[in-house]
Each structure stands twice: as structure tokens, then as C-alpha cells.
Amino acid sequence: MNDFSVEAIGLTKYFGDFKAVDDVSLTVPTGSIYGVLGPNGAGKTTSLRMTLGIIDPDEGSSRVFGERPQAVRHRIGYLPEERGLYPGMKAREAIAFMGALRGLDWSEGRRRAAIFMTELGLERVIDEKIRKMSKGMAQMIQLIGSIVHAPDLIVLDEPFSGLDPVNQERLEMLVRRERDRGATILFSTHVMAHAERLCDRLAIIARSQRRFEGTVDDARSLLPMQVRYTPRADADPAAIAALLPAGAEPRGDSWFFPIEDADVEPLLARITGSGLGVAGLSITRPALHDAFVHIVRQVDASFDADAGTDAVEEALA
Amino acid sequence: MTPFLKNMLVIARRDFLAIVATPTFLLFLLAPLFMVGMGLAGGMGASQLADSARGAGRIVAVVGADDVEALRAADARLRASVARRVPVLEVRIASPATTDPIAIAREKGSDTYAVLSGPLASPRIVEREADSNAGHYLALLADDVLRSKAAGPLPPVAPKFEALSSGGTSIALQQSLGFGAVFIIFLLTLLLAGQTVSSLAEEKGNKVIEILAAAVPLESVFLGKLLGFLGVAVLFIAFWLVMALAGGLIAALQIDPAALASVQSASKATAALTAAPATGWPFFLGMGFVYFILSFLLLGAVFLGVGAQAATVREIQMLSLPITIFQVGMFSLSTAAASAPGSSLSTIAQIFPFSSPLAMAARAATDDSKAVHLLALGWQAIWVAFVIFLSVRLFRAGVLSGGGSWKFWRRRGRAAALAATAAAATAQAADRH
């Protein structure tokens, strides 16, 4: 069996003259949870649609399980970004319908629908029509519908948006369970907390291009570690400033500054040697959130440079 | 069953149930009742109107007193043999005061179609319309009176009528059967196939289209939808067929068979029934149904494809007029073909895919070769597939590639605007350096 469930190479899509997706590659290891992160309008949805063969890329190609995505539709489950269900259908029927589209038996689909809905605390509305449900409920129904046929690849486009914290929690549980069942999960989000907790690997897309690919830890180590150091109360601020690297800034009792990996032990030695004492000390990796913002800002800055000259130009004129 | 067919049936099942399991469907199903009701009321009104108008119509002959008897006798004799209904004859005796035929024709209170005056050998006939039947009838009367005057009274002819019990079917009757088939198929497609134009609007509106597009080939979505609508149409027809049969049966049980036999119209009905279409009744009816299905699929596929391109309900409403005109166009082409079997026009109508089902159904009434229908069905099926294929291509290229927004032109417009500003920015930056 192939090591990668999804191999999308060099996907490019133009909408008119606008390059919505520019040479984006996604390779998703089988059995992993893979996150596609990016700000709004970065091209995540279009990338996923091309990966699944819903729209044809202008350049590049996508293989799922080593074949054309259209050839393995029954092994894929997909939750689109724009949620859609027939409002007149009952929840159980809607789920069975989505399963039937992927080749599942109607009766089996109905049976599994009831099980899934009960597990997710939705047993009240099993035979309720979709139009009577809240948006979040309908979204959970659609999510169940996209995994009811036990697909080998599950693609979720912004699955967490619109869900309350309890349902977000349930969804995370569901994603992990599907992974444990052996499925590969590819999802997009712009909420870092979920990606940080769930993803084995992730790609960051900004301004139509892939800007980063790797594990969560890889992303976090793009930025230096952050040190929070609290000396004993009676320490002299000037002495502390001399002890710490130049960028350190005091906030309240504590001092904050970034540190390179190699400098950690020398710093510890300096602090213990200085006699200023340690009331508190933490050295942590920055969160994924910071890494993401860092990457996106860098990309934006390079674009803003053009816009900046533009603004100056206009001001002069 | 292949996955493609299975997918198609899943879509068709959903659409069929979604349409049938609504109260609106009942209204749709019973809609012909209103039509029949309105038709009956209108028909009765119209016939009453015609009756009252008919009573007022007349023709007038102004003749000498000695010709009056002969004229009345001639009228009594001829009236029965003239096929067309002739207005009442009013005979007046010529006198200087009443001889102006134009004044008589203009008298109020009745429609005067023609007035005869002057000597019978060279009468003056004033007609309301040139070359009218009424005028000719008056001339015929004058002729008959003169003849009987010249030859003296003749013994009346005593004909003995004998009906040909099974004398083969007349070509005219077969042609009218063909015309009837064209009309019924056209009416049913007009009523039922037009719905498909809005069928994809639902999926586009509630965004289900992306789920469908991701899960199954679009071809099977389109075909499935078409099949679902066909199911609704067949259900509709079956319902009314059963109603009609049940109604006919009840009527037949109510009426005494002896009375039925004596009614003159019954013999006409049996004549129509014995007027078998050239291919025989079972084959003709079967083919009629199959051609209805193909006509439905062909036109439905076109409407579905066109409707899939429309973005809003308003656009779909605007599309309904050209669609109806297109259908009527196919209908007139086929009726023209049905009334001239064997002409090059009918060949064109039989080959042109969208009129082919109608024209071929008409052909089954007049032409007894059966193999050609197999060919026609294959040809029409190919066109159904082709139209679906084309619609899907257009849909994928136009609507589905719209990125985040399904409204692709808006996206394109915005992209163009973005590109324009970007180009301006780079141009300005280049200026600066």
C-alpha cells in the first residue's frame, strides 16, 4: 500500500486573471491527520476541491490512493465549506442519502445514522426534518453524512466553524476515532487550537501559495523559544538588564525575551551564577498560533511592500 | 448494477420522493381537472353562442310566385345531401318593393349570408363573403328548379345504402391518428418536461450541489434528476389513464348496451377503432409511449442543461418562454410532417433529434415498417446522452469552477478588478524606479 493517501502536486487554478491557487502541493501520509491552515481567501477550499477532483486544476495533478480522485469516490468522505442539505429531508434519511451517494446501502446507512447521532447527543432529532434544526445541528448531521460510509480518506473543509465548544470537542473526538479506525483525515481551518491538538502534519497556505509544510513542532520551531524570568523581589533592575540578552523587556515582576536553542544552558548558568535568584522561570516554544501569524505576516509584508510604494506614490501625487 | 446506474437511481429516488411527497404534488396531479372543467364550461358557452347565432342565420331567395313551390321542394331535396350545414332558406315573392337584394342583405335581426333575386335562369346573387357556400347553394337551387320545370316531375330516387364492413383503413384516418399521437405527446411533454428547467436550482440554492459533485459523476446527477422527473411524469400519466379507464368502465356499465348500439355515434367510434394504424394498435400505442419517454428525455435534458446555467429563479422564469416556443416549434414541425407522410419535410422532422420522437410516432400510424423505429430510438438515445454530456461540460466549466462563490462571473469580475489594480500598482512602482 502507498504511504501517501493524497498526492496533489503543483495545483494551480486561475479565476479569470487571478491566480487563486499557485503551485500548491499536498502530500498526506496514510493514517495521519493533516491540517491545511491559512487565512480567509488564501485558497484552501479551492485547493481541497482540486485535490478531490471536483474542479479541474489548470496545472498540476492530484492522486488519491494512487488513482484519479474520481475513480475512488466511494472511499472518500467530504464535508464542503458551504454546508448544504435538503431541508425537507429527515436527518436519518439525509445521512443515508449521503451514504448511498458513496455506495452505501440505504438500510445500512439508516442504521449507522442512528448510531452516530446517538453517540453525538442528537438522538432527539433523528427523525426531525433538517429545516427544523439549528445550523450547528445540521452541520453535525452533514458531518455524519460525510463519514457514514466509513471512508478511507476524510476531507473536512472548516469543520469547526459554526460549532459550539461542546460540539467542537465531540468533533475532535470523532476525528481521532476515525484516524484510529485507519482513516486518513485532511482538514482545513483557521482556528489554530484545533490544528495544534489534532494535526500530525500541516501545511500553511497564504496568498495562494503553500508557505509551510511540516509537523506542528516544525512550525513552532520557526520562532525562537520564549523565556519568562522572574528574579527575587529585591533584585536591581539594571543588574538584571545587564544579565539578560539585549531584547529583554520587563512586564510587572517578570522579564520576557526570546532565546535561541543553543543559548539556554549558558543563560541558566548565568542566572544561577548572578545571585539574583529565581522566583519563576519558564522556557517555552511559542504556540502554533504565533508561528502561523508570523508566517502570514511575512507573506503579507512582501505584498504590502508593493502596496506601500503605491500609497507613497499617491501621497506624492 | 454498475456504480453509475446506482448513483443515478439514488439521485432519481431522492428527486422523485421529494416531489411526490408534498401537498403541492396533489395540486399538480389534479390540475387537469381544472383544465377539463374550464374546457367544459368554455365549450358549453361557445356551443350555446354558436347555437344562438346559427338560429339567426339565413339565406334569402326572392322569386316569382309561381316558382316558390318548386324552390321549396328543391330545398327540401338538396338540403339533406349537402354536406355542409346550410342556413335556413327564406323565400320571398318578388315585388317592386322587395327586390333590392342589398337592402335585404342589410336587414337587421339576422345574419343574411346570400340573397338570390331576378330571373332563375340568370339570377343575381348577393353574398356576404365572395364565393361562399350559401351563394353556391342558392345557384344550385335555381338550377334544380329550372331542371325540374323543364323535365317535369321525376320519380324520386330510391337509393339503398350499404356500408363496407371492413374495407381497410383510410389513409386520412391513419394520418389523423398520427396527428393525434403527435398532439398527445406534445401536450404531455409541454406540461411535464418544462419542470426540469428549475430542477438544479434547488441544489444550487441549498448548496447540496457540491456534495453531489464530490460524491458522484455529474452525468449521473443530471441523468438521475431527469429520471426522477420522468418518474413523476409517468406517475401522472398512469394516474389519469387509470382515472380515464375507470370512468369509461363505469360509463359503459351505466349505459344499456342496446341503447349504445343504437346510438349513431357508436358506429363512428367503432369505425375509428377499426381504423387501425399501419403498425397495429399494440405496437402503435407501445411506440407512442416509448416516444413520449424519449421526447421527454430529450427536451428535459435540454431544459435541464439550460436551467443549470441560470443563477437565479428570475433567470429561470425568463427561460420558460423560449423553452415553450422551442417546444411549440417542434410540435408544428412534427404536425406538418404528420400531414405529409413521405415528404422531405417529414424526413427532416424524423431525423432532427428534438422533433424525431413526435414525427416518428406519427409515422407509426401511417407506415407499417417497424425496424426503422429501432433505428430512431437508438438515434434519439444517442442525442439524450450527447445533450447530457454537453450540459455537464458547460456546467463544470461555467458554474462549478467558480471557486468560493458559485457565481462565477462575479468572481471573475472581482478577479479582473484585482488584477487591474495589481497591474496599476506594478506599473506605478516601475515608474518610480
Keywords:
A: Rossmann fold; Alpha-Beta Plaits; 2 domains; 4-stranded antiparallel beta sheet; 10 helices; 13 strands; elongated; B: 433 residues; D-Maltodextrin-Binding Protein, domain 2; 4 strands; 71% helix
Write the layout of secondary structure elements.
The complex is a heterodimer of chains A (317) and B (433).
Chain A: E1 4-15, E2 18-29, E3 33-37, H1 44-51, E4 59-64, E5 76-79, H2 91-101, H3 106-119, H4 135-147, E6 153-157, H5 165-181, E7 184-189, H6 192-198, E8 201-206, E9 209-214, H7 216-220, E10 225-230, H8 237-243, E11 249-251, E12 254-259, H9 264-274, E13 280-284, H10 288-316
Parallel strand pairs in A: 3-7, 3-8, 5-6, 6-7
Antiparallel strand pairs in A: 1-2, 1-4, 8-9, 10-12, 10-13, 11-12
Helix pairs in contact in A: 2-3, 2-4
Chain B: H1 3-20, H2 23-56, E1 57-63, H3 68-81, E2 88-93, H4 101-105, E3 111-117, E4 124-127, H5 133-151, H6 171-192, H7 199-206, H8 208-215, H9 218-254, H10 257-262, H11 264-274, H12 281-309, H13 313-338, H14 344-351, H15 356-366, H16 371-398, H17 408-432
What can you tell me about this protein's structure?
The complex is a heterodimer of chains A (317) and B (433). Chain A is of the alpha/beta class and 317 residues long. Chain A folds into 2 domains: 4-220, P-loop containing nucleotide triphosphate hydrolases (Rossmann fold, 3-Layer(aba) Sandwich), CATH 3.40.50; 225-284, Alpha-Beta Plaits (2-Layer Sandwich), CATH 3.30.70. In chain A, 38% of the residues lie in helices and 26% in strands. Chain A has 10 helices and 13 strands. Chain A has helices at residues 44-51, 91-101, 106-119, 135-147, 165-181, 192-198, 216-220, 237-243, 264-274, 288-316, and strands at 4-15, 18-29, 33-37, 59-64, 76-79, 153-157, 184-189, 201-206, 209-214, 225-230, 249-251, 254-259, 280-284. In chain A, the strands form 3 sheets. In chain A, strands 5-6-7-3-8-9 form a 6-stranded mixed beta sheet, with helices on both faces. In chain A, strands 11-12-10-13 form a 4-stranded antiparallel beta sheet, with no helix packed on it. The mean pLDDT of chain A is 88. With 433 residues, chain B is mainly α. In chain B, strand 1 (57-63), helix 3 (68-81) and strand 2 (88-93) form a beta-alpha-beta unit. The interface between A and B is large, with 42 and 43 residues.
